[in-house]
């Protein structure tokens, strides 16, 4: 008997069924899963990463977990919302957490963390020398990539300590407010390639022994550098680079170890975005990079979604009504209300289509959409509310 | 008459997500009056200008981008664009000032260029802002280059702007003598002069406003000239103050709304009216928060300009609309 196969054939082309979507991100399941040991929140600047990190950490703590949240440059008000005036490099307990869990909060002090690495790696005398070098000072306090290196370094430290002492069973990490979300992941690689760079090796060579490598080409360079920058500059630079050699060899290994920690099971990446083309594009880059590097992506959080209008009246109809009222010179209140409604419908539709496009390109990514709040977070209650909204996304 | 007619260099900064690139682009269009040449620069390797104006990615080379917003009499200027990257800026600098020739190539071969631009602290910023300086203070070394009437810099975000412009402090500390030191001092003189203005973009929300306040304090400490505040994405004002207050208090006259909606030719249902009233109440609440923040911004005593939120997103047409609004309000 001939089997009817046509029904089983999958249609292709524009009318084919869409790839299976992963659906909503279940934040509570993620937090409740005891194997989740590290949550990294990443995304481009200005999308609410820090607030999201703090809200997740609080929610986990109130579900009984021992949590530390590592924030990078939080707004003063956010630190205050956790009852801490000045966050610093040491975890401080947050008061008022309900239940048996606990929450500590800290803020990355980039310079302090860097200084500690130097102090732990070099002899006291050598450490002093490095800490006073003008290149080191500028590098440790201002270089655009240092924050990323140090965030990773700190994460590695906390994780090692937590494993040894059992202080925490969950670390929530906020990532630096860089232009690109990828900077965080690229930090160890950039550090390695810097240390392996030709110029660094050349500068190190004379410090290591007889100046055999001082080729004609190289002295040409040092001469022109001296001409442009002055002799002291080169001397400081050479001293700095030779110090790098003794101190940061170990640092590179640590950064790489932290990188593999990020790839391990037990780590969950949450990509945070706003419903804007730029933020979602950054999120897409990040999602692609995570899957390339075999890193565990838990989902996408879209913050600041505009609230859905309550009535289904289409924008075009509302605006047609406004036009009619205007022609008749009547109904000032309704005209205003209908225009507001149309504006909101257009906003929501635009955001939906942006999210829809993201989902079409990345159907495997579970998503939570968090509506915009009217005001900022001022206290734990505000963070709790955001935690609820995050968790509620799974139930809708 | 523009509030900033003496300014040649407009630096536009703002917290991430406030739309500083949009504002920088609109300002460039607004400044391009009849016969004027305006240069719009970006320094963060984002190709945001190319994306916004829908052109191919920009090279390290000044390119004619588009024409400015027409004046009342139809005259318009030209907006050029430049994507500045640190490596190209360094090579250009070396050839312009030192005619390094063989040594320049050797620098590249030995990885010095890469070293200087990726890690040497502060150097990156100096190279980027140095190119901006060169565009403002064109001299005979750059033969045949356009003399610009205004330069708009789509700058790093508020948190980094003072450090970015404060080249005297950054490099001055490292290179204590020599030409770089002299040059960074000269750059600093321009950045601190009344010919520069650092404009800050904000939203009427607590966090960006707070960051604007902090940013202004930082700029003042570094003696950098604070320009205007551009308040972006302002909510629509479709309700009169009186109706707004009533909407917030929940005292809008329901029957009146019903009859007016009916007059608009829209079928009245309880769901629709409930929805409209509720939406109005929420809108009024957010408008009240905006007003609070607007007060805070006003108290800073800096000229402010407002741009509306675009429900459909910002496209090229919207940039011209924004440019028109900035001109109307006297920013350009």
Order of helices and strands of chain B: EHEHEEHHHHEHHHEHEHHHEH
Count up the helices of chain B: 14
In CATH, what is the homologous superfamily of chain A?
Answer: P-loop containing nucleotide triphosphate hydrolases
Overall mean confidence score, pLDDT of chain B: 90
Kindly state the number of beta strands of chain A.
8
Biggest beta sheet summary of chain A? 8 strands, mixed
Task: Note the run of SSEs of chain A as H and E.
Answer: HEHEHEEHHHHEHHHHEHEHHEH
Instruction: Tell me how many strands of chain B there are.
Output: 8
Percent range for β-strand residues of chain B:
5-15%
Q: Describe the biggest sheet of chain B?
A: 8 strands, mixed
Percentage of residues in helical conformation of chain A: 55-70%
Instruction: Based on Cα principal axes, name the global outline of chain B.
Output: elongated
Report the structural category of chain A. Answer: alpha/beta
Strand order of the largest sheet of chain B: 3-4-2-5-1-6-7-8
Pfam family, one (chain A): ArsA_ATPase
GO molecular function, one term (chain A): ATP binding
Protein name (chain A): ArsA family ATPase
GO molecular function (chain B): ATP binding; ATP hydrolysis activity
Plain-language structure description:
With 396 residues, chain A is an alpha/beta fold. Chain A has one domain (21-195, 248-309, 352-395): Rossmann fold. Chain A has helices at residues 27-32, 49-62, 76-81, 110-121, 124-132, 134-142, 146-165, 183-195, 198-208, 216-229, 231-263, 277-292, 315-328, 332-361, 380-392, and strands spanning 38-42, 66-71, 92-93, 102-107, 170-174, 267-273, 297-305, 367-371. Chain A has an 8-stranded mixed β-sheet, sandwiched between helices. In chain A, helix 4 (110-121) packs antiparallel against helix 5. The longest helix of chain A is centred in the middle third of the chain and has 33 residues, at 231-263. Chain A is globular. The model of chain A is unreliable at 1-7 and 207-213 (pLDDT under 50). With 332 residues, chain B is α/β, with parallel strands linked by helices. Chain B has 2 domains: 9-237 and 293-328, P-loop containing nucleotide triphosphate hydrolases (Rossmann fold), CATH 3.40.50; 241-285, no CATH class. Helix content of chain B is 50%, strand content 15%. Chain B has 14 helices and 8 strands. Chain B has an 8-stranded mixed β-sheet with strand order 3-4-2-5-1-6-7-8, with helices on both faces. In chain B, strand 6, helix 10 and strand 7 (226-234) form a beta-alpha-beta unit. The model of chain B has no long low-confidence stretch (mean pLDDT 90). At the A-B interface, helix 6, helix 9, helix 10, helix 11 and helix 13 of A face helix 4, helix 5, helix 7, helix 8 and helix 9 of B.
